[in-house]
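REVIEWER CHECKLIST
Item 1: Sequence provided? yes
Item 2: Single chain? yes
Item 3: Sequence as submitted:
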Amino acid sequence: RSLVGSEMCIRDRYQRRVRGFQQVHSSMAETQEGIKRLIAAEKEAQNIVKEAREKRVALLRQAKEDATREVEEYKNTRMNQFKEYKAKHTQGTDDIQKQLAKETEETIQRIQEQVKQSGPEIVKLLLEIVERV
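Item 4: Structure as written out by the authors:
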């Protein structure tokens, strides 16, 4: 059978629409596949970021523990050095304190003796000064 011009136009228009729908359908299928790949890539990226955060937290925790340990070791080292220095430089302080106490007592006794000996003379001088005024 032979088609008339209007039938040919209708057929051609129908075929163009069918091809258009096929292209849209194909394009939608590709788009959906692309979306699925994007979602999968996003999930993978989230996992990578999560692992990186966990590693960072673990590294920070380890660094803090290491720093705390190093500070404690340094503190103990310096405390031991101070104790050694103190022990070395404070040896005999009891002897020095006893000697100072003895010298102080002797000086006090000398001053008291001098006051007893020169006491009457000082009183006499003071009275003379007071009488002049």
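Item 5: Key structural point noted by reviewer: The radius of gyration is 54 Å.
Item 6: Recommendation: ____
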